Amino acid sequence: MKKIFLIRHAKSSWDVPVQDINRSLSKRGVNDAHLIASKLIDFVPNSYVVWCSKAKRAIETAYVFSEYLSVPLETIYFKDELYTFDDDNLLKVIKKCKNEHDNLILFGHNEAITNFVNKFGDLFIENVPTSGVVVLQFDTDNWENLYKGKTITTLFPSHFKNEQHS
Question: Which whole number is the average pLDDT over 75-88?
Fold first, then answer.
């Protein structure tokens, strides 16, 4: 059984004119990342590997989540190829996961994430929002053999909007 936690980076700031890969999180993005990370604790298994895009906003999101999940920062794998908006490229990267890992937590980007969860999950999601988490489970022991799986969890900031105190 393989499980992937696809986490879209938190909302980024457009206040400073920088290259896309260098954009930081907005205040709302930081708040939403803290909110969802605090909810994700109950869903994360005991062992997993964490991969993250090298985009600044994805890295900052991963750092917020790592606080809640007690992930040592030096154990996060930062991958250039996760800076992708294409679900086929995302699939190629995921298939490289070592089979010794049954659980993969991945911080990445839209449209790759939304298209991936709709192609491989069993629940249509119009758009995975920033800070959104979708957990897919696959009945296989080999990352190379991913096929249609099951969408077992979605955690979006809008699910908890009544709990936010901004």
Answer: 96
